[in-house]
Specification:
Elements (H helix, E strand, L loop, with lengths): L14 H33 L11 H30 L6 E8 L2 E6 L6 E4 L21 E4 L4 E7 L4 E5 L4 E5 L5 E5 L5 E6 L12 E7 L1 H14 L1
Parallel strand pairs: 1-5, 4-10
Antiparallel strand pairs: 1-2, 2-3, 5-8, 6-7, 9-10
Keywords: Copper, Electron transport, Magnesium, Membrane, Metal-binding, Mitochondrion, Mitochondrion inner membrane, Respiratory chain, Translocase, Transmembrane, Transmembrane helix, Transport
Organism: Arnoglossus tenuis (dwarf lefteye flounder)
Pfam families: COX2 (PF00116), COX2_TM (PF02790)
């Protein structure tokens, strides 16, 4: 999760988020170089003592400031298109989970299990235990096995919502009457936090997303217990 005074993005917990971080650094370095060059040119022009007023045009400069921006755009566009295809690709998922957005909570259905379904409400501040995070904890966590391709089906029952987990590089719109899908792989065990990222009404900021990535043995035990409770 994010922490106070954080300057960068959250640490990556999935291969997709690692690629997004690399692209962010790549684009940021290009922006830094361009900004430095433009600042240098401005300073050089302002501080120059001599000006040749007879120069009306320069074919060489015209070529340079046409070709260089084209090269820069290609350097940004190619990895960007690659990332877009990676984000849309779903490769042989080993588990499918459906997230259904409501005002203002989430319902999760494990489509590979008959009786595994539950609602996830935000924990009130008075119910938090030491170490839990205000506005981010839910009474039921979405539990998935680590290092396993997971497919998420996302939709909504009433209004627009968005299912987002920054550490996994996932953000999917939840639209009533439509199923959107995405996929992710949690590279390590842990607890990852997100929130609804579409303004959905008065309690929009009170429907958190909590995903717990565990070992396969722990997930099998948890799923068995949850199925019995349902």
């Amino acid at each position: 999760m994010a922490h106070p005074s954080q300057l960068g993005l959250q640490d990556a917990a999935s291969p997709l988020m690692e690629e997004l971080l690399h692209f962010h650094d790549h684009a940021l370095m290009i922006v830094l170089l361009i900004s430095t060059m433009v600042l240098y040119i401005i300073i050089a022009m302002v501080t120059a003592k001599f000006t040749d007023k007879l120069i009306l045009d320069s074919q060489e400069i015209e070529v340079i400031w046409t070709v260089l921006p084209a090269i820069v755009l290609i350097m940004i566009a190619m990895p960007s298109l690659r990332l877009l295809y990676m984000m849309d690709e779903v490769n042989v998922p080993q588990m499918t989970v459906k997230a259904l957005g409501h005002q203002w909570y989430w319902t999760y259905e494990y489509t590979d299990y008959e009786d595994l379904e539950f609602d996830a409400y935000m924990l009130a501040t008075s119910d938090l235990t030491p170490g839990q995070f205000r506005l981010l904890e839910a009474d039921h966590r979405l539990v998935v096995p680590a290092i396993t391709p997971i497919r998420m089906l996302v939709t909504a029952e009433d209004v627009l919502h968005a299912w987002a987990l920054p550490a996994l590089g996932v953000k999917v719109d939840a639209i009533p009457g439509r199923l959107n899908q995405t996929a992710f792989i949690a590279e390590r065990p842990g607890v990852f936090y997100g929130q609804c990222s579409e303004i959905c009404g008065a309690n929009h900021s009170f429907m958190p997303i909590v995903l717990e990535s565990t070992s396969l043995d722990h997930f099998v035990h948890w799923s068995a217990v949850m199925s019995e409770d349902n």
